[in-house]
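INFO batch 0412 | record 1 of 1 | parsing
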Amino acid sequence: MQCFSVCVYCGSRRGAKPIYAQEASALGTGLAERGWRLVYGAGDVGLMGNVARAAQAAGGETFGVIPTHLLQLEVGKQDLSSFIVTENMHERKKVMFMNSDFVIILPGGLGTLDEFFEILTWKQLGLHGKKIIIININGYWDKLIELLDQLVTSEIADLSINNYFVVIDSADEILETI
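INFO prediction complete | emitting tokens
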């Protein structure tokens, strides 16, 4: 029987504030303590590395997916429970998404934004019903949330997009929300 799987999109960098790494580690630990499998980008750097190492340290199952061209740059973490190498980013995103029950967004850069907007669009199009949760650590995603609100107030997007994701402030809160 396969366990509950959580896809975590996050940065390959740690970011300027130590709280980002602390929350990534808290999330990894919390997932493992609940017996939930971490699905993530298979890197051993940045927030990706934090969440995976914490999940492993707590005895959790880890499922990493990395494209060939990022094996060295993101230091592919090959000691995971499952380690999959894909040909490209599109395949990576698909494998991660298809092997998860819902998605968490931690602080990240352009790759994280790409992943978020793709799954948000898929949800809008009715291609999935998975829960999407944004962890807005110290207001990291405030501008993104403002942008999404502007799409609605400008009547470019329907008000229903606000129902496609949940915003919370910490890993502890997310673990209680799920």
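INFO post-check: The longest helix spans residues 18-33.
INFO record closed
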